[in-house]
Amino acid sequence: MNIFIDNRSGQPIYDQIYSQIKAQIIGGSLSADEPLPSIRGLAKDLRISVITTKRAYDELEKDGFIYTVAAKGCFVAPKNTELLREESLRKIEEHMEQIIKLAHSCGLSREELIEMLSYEMEE
């Protein structure tokens, strides 16, 4: 598992860890039931606070991406297809909001926007 911390980024460190682990789970480079590094071990490797690492793991567990076994550690949760679908739908909605703002700024009508979408989906 590779995690890179960008100290110049405006994104909080725990969120960088969360995002990168989540992306590796969704992308398939981390498999179901695969053990994650211990919270202390990851904190030491990244030279960050244990509290920061724990917060990232807590968020991942809360969102269903990992699970914890007492005295054993944290593991990648089996993929929940509904959870992944909801995540994708949320991303699509965010992109659509940006598209609509751009379309309004360019004076595109609803019909023109739908036509553009239809054309792109045909390819």
Describe the structure.
The chain is mainly α and 123 residues long. The chain is 61% helix and 7% strand. It is built from 5 helices and 2 strands. The protein has helices at residues 13-27, 39-46, 50-62, 81-106, 110-122, and strands at residues 66-69, 73-76. It has a two-stranded antiparallel sheet.
Shape: elongated
Mean of pLDDT:
92
Structural class comes to: mainly alpha
- Helix segment tally: 5
Secondary-structure element order, N to C: HHHEEHH
Uncertain stretches of 5 or more adjacent residues: none
Helical amount = 55-70%
How would you characterize the largest beta sheet? 2 strands, antiparallel
What's the total number of strands?
Answer: 2
Rg calculated over all Cα atoms: 19 Å
Strand order of the largest sheet: 1-2
Task: Give the CA-CA distance, first to last residue.
Answer: 35 Å
Portion in strands:
5-15%
